UniProtKB/TrEMBL annotation, chain A:
It catalyses: GTP + H2O = 7,8-dihydroneopterin 3'-triphosphate + formate + H(+). It holds the Pfam family GTP_cyclohydroI. This is GTP cyclohydrolase 1. The lineage of its organism: Eukaryota, Metazoa, Chordata, Craniata, Vertebrata. It comes from Carassius auratus. Belongs to the GTP cyclohydrolase I family. Residues 60-236 form the GTP cyclohydrolase I domain. The keyword Hydrolase applies. GO terms for molecular function: GTP binding; GTP cyclohydrolase I activity; zinc ion binding.
UniProtKB/TrEMBL annotation, chain B:
Pfam families: GTP_cyclohydroI. It is an enzyme of class 3 (hydrolase). It is found in: Cytoplasm; Nucleus. Keywords: Allosteric enzyme, Cytoplasm, GTP-binding, Hydrolase, Metal-binding, Nucleotide-binding, Nucleus, Tetrahydrobiopterin biosynthesis, Zinc. It comes from Carassius auratus (Goldfish). The keyword GTP-binding applies. GO terms for cellular component: cytoplasm; nucleus. This is GTP cyclohydrolase 1. Its EC number is 3.5.4.16. Residues 41-51 have a biased composition (Polar residues). Residues 53-63 have a biased composition (Basic and acidic residues). Gene3D superfamilies: 1.10.286.10, 3.30.1130.10. The gene is LOC113060761.
Amino acid sequence: MEYQKAAELNGLCNGKIVTEYLCRNGFSELTVDTKKVAVQHKHETSRKEAEDESRLPALEAAYSTILRGLGENTDRQGLLKTPLRAAKAMQFLTKGYHETIYDILNDAIFDEDHEELVIVKDIDMFSLCEHHLVPFFGKVHIGYLPSKKVVGLSKLARIVEIYSRRLQVQERLTKQIAMAISEALQPVGVAVVIEAAHMCMVMRGVQKMNSRTVTSAMLGAFREDPKAREEFLALTKSAQ
Amino acid sequence: MERSKQKQMSQNENETDAAINGHFDGRAKVPGWSAGGAAGTPSTVPSSSVMESWREERTRSLEDNEMSLPSIAAAYTTILRGLGEDPQRQGLLKTPWRAATAMQFFTKGYQEKIIDVLNDAIFDEDHDEMVIVKDIDMFSMCEHHLVPIFGRVHIGYLPNKRVLGLSKLARIVEIYSRRLQVQERLTKQIAVAITEALQPAGVGVVIEATHMCMVMRGVQKMNSKTVTSTMLGVFREDPKTRDEFLSLIRS
């Protein structure tokens, strides 16, 4: 399954829950085991937090090595606790690995007799380039054509958070968001557009300040019907 | 070898001037630059002693870079593993090296000295009106979280018969910003460097920046900007000059 491959590419599946979810094609099978899975999940989260704590010393040591390698004086006042802060910051910026779609979407899918386009746009997104470990950030626009099932609006933003807080490539990020919504809701179509600035291009390398990278993923009706796509793109175009 | 010299140097300076981040923090080494203002008095300091303080800046060489690359790359591999990623997957195979080189680029200010950048571009011009270079894009690294800071720098100075090549102002910004920095210190270092190079009647530096450590993590305030300024000489004493500078950078 394409989605499974895409998700496996992006790392870490710490908990059993995630692999179980990924192995199944849809949501319906999981509803039966809700309680058992929920309990299991609570243990998983606290285990992951404990794991984070236990990994901190190794990360701190690595950051100290980096600071020394750059020629800085690690004993000066401003840098004394920097390895710890940098390690925690990095763990925060990659916290998407610990989160699963299942936890956040669990209750927020509703049956609505609505079949028109639903768009949530201008979702701020911050991620890390997996090639240089340097941030890239921008805006995500998501639109979907529900098929009798709508999702809580903030959950779309939470899906963005889960996948963006990882070491990412913008193309894969776009696809993962689209596939996640597709799998969760089975809508008529999903469209995701991301416009981002990559610091690895702005701060170093070619150093083009104003360049933006735009990627999109169109699934279902958005891929087949040009009019639906047009409507989505027209509505997400901001007056700049 | 170079590093122990630096340590010794910084220990010595902690007793007096607290050289932080490779430069004497805040003291313009020009006698006669007291609170009373030296507007119009030409500096009698021989240029060599001014250059002395520049020479004391920390330098890292290209050889140092090459030698430390493997250890920095190994550290990044540890970090990738510590975050739970698989360093052997295709996208991450060369990431430790790329990240290490990128980090060395982001701190390349340690490899450069003001004196090399400015050496020839100071000219004698009979000009004593304000010169401003604004909207200089600036990229730095927060020394507390190792996360980028970016923004714009506006520099203005009142020459005292000596003007500086305009791009040299931007190069001074580059040297000091491509380091592990704190925005307040960066602003001051730029102002002091220009002061020491030109002995102008006054210097004003304003930096407006976005800190990713505040935007991407922590408080997560997307639109927040931090503004710092340093006014030296006439810019500090004469409010009209400062007003002119501030309104010109705003337009």
